[in-house]
Design brief:
Layout (H helix, E strand, L loop, with lengths): L6 H6 L6 H4 L4 E5 L2 E4 L4 E4 L2 H4 L8 H12 L12 H15 L7 E3 L5 H16 L3 E5 L8 H5 L4 H5 L8 E4 L9 H13 L8 E6 L2 E2 L5 E2 L2 H13 L3 E5 L23 E4 L12 E4 L19 H14 L4 H21 L5 E6 L2 E6 L3 H12 L2 E2 L1 E3 L5 E4 L7 H19 L4
Parallel strand pairs: 3-15, 5-6, 5-7, 7-10, 10-11
Antiparallel strand pairs: 1-2, 2-3, 4-12, 8-9, 11-12, 13-14, 14-17, 16-17
This protein binds pyridoxal-5'-phosphate.
């Protein structure tokens, strides 16, 4: 049955709509970790805009910066013109993010989506190396445009392209073969070094340190180090797609920091704007900056209100390591709770890093049912993985311990009702 207040969505909005089907209500306002629908019902957010709302909804510090900027008629749309807001962002990126981490990167403003940042990264890698092939990983997700889809795993999403997706070869992600780190890695090493493997020398490898959409699959620290060494030994560029796992999701600002590696190219989007405003960045080593002016163009590269909230977020959350420490502590809090939930269930396991955590169901159909039951109880949480077999927990990093515990209780109750004591 369609409620009258829902009809325009089902009648007018394209079938392509997705999340609104899992969460059939009309959301109206939100603050912090909570959304409210039109009836005033509240929902705790364990989804955080798929990672675009790491600092929660409408954070007061970011909101004030945005309102002040709008009130003084600050530039809203700026193409890639130099603006005050952009200068402040670049200086803050340099002083708060890059220099303290010893990272020497140039900053590119692509179009404001993660997919566009990935397109730019792939183009740049090809231009720098003069090679066409890219290595990606099983279960990877890099976005829905053609280049980004060509390095994405999911068959249904790939099929949407309607044209052959070329010039990319999928390699086994950490643990893909038997759960053993070395086997997946040995395959990649072997085919790269065997001139008869049929693999053309690649321009770049693109990797997520934790595959979010792919099912919360973790690349181990050692695996990442070996991947980085393998790339630099063969002059293959290493692209870390930190669109979802960056901006503190796994603890440190950049998800690759735990491995002590320095990727050649890094993509950021989702939470970099801080407030959920569209923005993306491509960071790369200075010697890779072979772009001609305007070679990767776009009308909305200068979303100045997002620059303002991005700057405010960097200053507010990343002037010290308190957010990183809090994120790791909250991640452990979730891990302890999940360990309890899966303890007596053969068909369940859990994995994650920082504030991206997943519950994996052997019976894939149960995961969606748990999410539906959670929605009924006022919790937004989504599935991930090739069969949607993983319930993926992605709360705002700013969530309180009390809200976190509440959400975990709702999740446990939802699992109980779906699994009836055994999943
Ligand atoms: C979401 C995501 C993208 C795509 O970002 P869009 O803004 O949806 O285009 C790319 N890479 C990763 C890892 C993502 O999670």
């Amino acid at each position: 049955m369609t409620l009258p207040e829902m009809t325009v969505f089902s009648e007018l909005e394209s079938n392509v709509r997705g999340y609104c089907r899992s969460w059939p209500t009309v959301f109206d306002t939100a603050s912090g970790s909570w959304l409210r629908d039109e009836t005033g019902r509240e929902y705790l957010d364990f989804f955080a805009g798929a990672g675009a709302l790491n600092y929660g909804h409408n954070h007061p510090v970011l909101k004030t910066a945005l309102l002040d900027y709008i009130a003084r008629d600050g530039i809203t749309h700026g193409l890639d013109m130099s603006t005050t807001a952009k200068r402040e962002l670049l200086e803050t990126l340099r002083d708060k993010l890059l220099r303290p981490r010893g990272l020497d990167y140039k900053v590119q403003f692509p179009g404001p989506t993660g997919a566009n940042a990935v397109e730019a990264a792939l183009k740049l890698a090809r231009k720098v190396t003069g090679r066409t092939e890219i290595l990606n990983f099983t279960n990877a997700f890099h976005g829905m445009t053609l280049g980004a889809l060509s390095v994405t795993g999911n068959a249904a999403k790939r099929a949407g392209a309607g044209v052959p997706l070329q010039h990319a070869t999928s390699m086994p992600f950490d643990g893909y073969l038997s759960g053993a780190e070395d086997e997946s890695f040995e395959w990649m090493e072997r085919v790269l070094d065997d001139t008869s493997s049929g693999l053309d020398s690649p321009a770049a490898v693109i990797v997520e340190t934790v595959q979010g959409e792919g099912g919360v699959n973790l690349a181990g620290v050692e695996w990442l180090r070996k991947l980085s060494a393998l790339c630099s030994a063969r002059e293959i560029l290493l692209i870390v797609d930190d669109v979802q796992m960056g901006c503190g999701r796994t603890g440190p600002f950049f998800s690759f920091e735990i491995a002590g590696i320095t990727p050649d190219i890094v993509t950021l989007s989702k939470s970099i704007g801080g407030y959920g405003l569209p923005m993306a960045l491509v960071l790369f080593k200075p010697e890779l900056d072979v772009w001609a002016p305007g070679e990767h163009n776009g009308t909305f590269r200068g979303n100045n209100p997002a620059f303002v909230t991005a700057t405010a977020a960097l200053n507010h959350f990343w002037s010290d390591d308190s957010l990183e420490i809090a994120t790791l502590a909250k991640g452990e809090r979730i891990e302890r709770a999940l360990a309890g939930m899966i303890a007596d269930n053969e068909g369940l396991s859990a994995r994650g890093r920082g504030l991206v955590q997943g519950v994996v169901f052997d019976d894939a159909s149960l995961a969606s049912k748990v999410c539906a039951a959670a929605f009924q109880r006022g919790l937004l949480v989504e599935t991930a993985g090739p069969e949607d077999e993983v319930v993926k927990l992605l709360p705002p990093l700013t969530i309180s311990d009390a809200d976190l515990d509440h959400g975990l209780e709702v999740l446990a109750a939802s699992m109980d009702v779906v699994c009836g004591g055994g999943c």
